[in-house]
User: Fold AAA family ATPase from Rhodoplanes roseus.
Amino acid sequence: MKPVLHAVDASGAAQPSIPHYAPAGNECALFELAWRRRLPLLLKGPTGCGKTRFVAHMATRLGLPLHTVACHDDLSAADLTGRHLLKGGDTVWTDGPLTRAVREGGICYLDEIVEARKDVAVVLHPLTDDRRILPLERTGEELSAPPGFMLVVSYNPGYQSLLKALKPSTRQRFVAIEFDFLPAEQEIAVVAAESGLSPERVRPLVALAARLRALKGHDLEEGVSTRLVVYAAGLIAAGLRPAEAVLAAMIEPLTDEPDVKAALVEVAKAVTG
Assistant:
């Protein structure tokens, strides 16, 4: 993905430009309404379909600070709220990203929330109802979220299992938006804009991505993300042969199985020529 560029206003101060995002429906309006109504938001959809870019787009569009946390198996409630640390021989409380967002305002975005430990959901519950508070047991504080604070979480339903799923008691605290990959013509336009490759040359890559996505749940655990299509197009724009770019960006990341990889190469040849 392209980095966020900066413009300069009349005073000479750098102003962040809005990260490019192609809406598929009314998600931008719904996000803004949720923010105004102080409602927490849940984004669900496959890997690489634009959820994180969407949050960055909306944060810049609304002029809000963005605190992003990539959730993982070892992420605990203390990682989000904060902990006491030794500094210069003294024990000092250090805020975590969630606490900083609640104190200062802005969007706290927890990416792939189901990957975090179960105690994280307990910490989020008081922030996702009409109380909008964050109790900090270790300091004795009870922080009230300011009007400009918004909690956004995301996850990929395709990875849900009995061990990794959002409980109904957590899901029903959020307004939810479901994401999917864009229709072909829109995806072509996005990939062309992000990579610099012409739409005509992007078209077969998007067609291949659609074919590979159809194999999800059969030979593949996950389909090709728009992100990977952008990577492939970018490599081609930089001078790499299309077949090599497709192999490196759209096939190798999907599987380590030699037989499956060989089959995907044949699919790629049939679609892209």
In short: The longest strand covers residues 149-155. DSSP finds eleven helices and eleven strands in the chain. Residues 1-15 have pLDDT under 50 and may be disordered.
